[in-house]
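ok so i was messing around last nite and threw this chain in just to see what happens. nothing serious, just curious
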Amino acid sequence: MNADPRAALAILTASLERHLEASASRRGENDPTVVAAYQAVADAFDLYDDALLEAYGEVTPLEIYSGEGDEEDDDGDEVDEELDDHGDEDGDSNGVYLGLDDSDYDEEPSRSR
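result:
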């Protein structure tokens, strides 16, 4: 392959535009137009990433999501879904950090002179 990265980028950009248009006018869960546009983005991305690697020895930090099998790293180890091993300490299960609760820290008593 001897693709020009700039031309491959133009193809990727155009495919993203088509995907946006298809998504904005989709008709149902598995709209064939959106599915085709999704595949075109994936193909254009692969072309761009390959052209970038060949021309400059660089790659993007992106990967194409292909479904359930993406739960493993390239070396076969499972990806850690929980980064901090603290679990759900405060009982809410939404997983959004909203700051410390009053019970999570002790205030120092004020010193009066």
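not much to say yet. The chain has two helices and no strands.
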